[in-house]
Known about the structure:
2 domains; two-stranded antiparallel ribbon; 7 helices
Amino acid sequence: MKDTELQYYFDLYCREMCSPYAPTRSSEIIQNTLLYAFFRDVLKVDDETKAEIIALSEGNNQIITDYINKAKEEYKRKVVDELDEQKDIIASTWNVPISQSYNSKYEKKDYKKSIMQPPYAKAQSKPEQEFIAILEDPKNEVKWWYKNGESEPKFFGIKYAKDGLEHAFYPDFILMMKDGRIGIFDTKEGRTAEDAKPKAEALAKYIKKENARRGKQELFGGIVVFKDGSCRYNDSENYSYDKANLGSDWKFLDLRG
């Protein structure tokens, strides 16, 4: 099997092992923080291709699978459950991390307003790229912006309910305006915008609650989509999305002050 084919099946295996967590970011954690690190630090196997062969081989794969599931159960017990209990407190006291680690999937970028310097980023969705272009516009009033992470206490999360269960929602971007206002935005498109209702309404309620607590309209934000060359955002507590007709709840985003 070619190295590229092997990498494909290894990536697929890591994504399959993510359940019940979102595979987009969790697969990287399983692949890099868990498996590659285990082979490198414990088994002294520095060759990632060799590590993939060992992990996927018939004699070892079930053992690897069982230990990943055990690790996920431990993670849920020690991190997720405790994080859900403290989410309201964490969201109210959160600050941008002092430092952040990156793996080989991240590339150095030339972002001028990113609060993390030097800035690194991995492959981004089209809406994320378009939103960063707006944030980086020298004509706007954005002082700095931060690309949020996911599933770790150091990242900014908001508690929301879906199908009777509590989850943590990690908005994509947090930004500071020159006048001191704080923006919290999550970029979506297509089906993800349609399915964003629980997260969107949780974010809207959080912003309303925090502004009431602070006694001023310091926070703003919502779900972001791009349509017909315009950036629109929805901050309604009764979220709806119709691609053909966004409606008055979808405001035009202007960060120029």
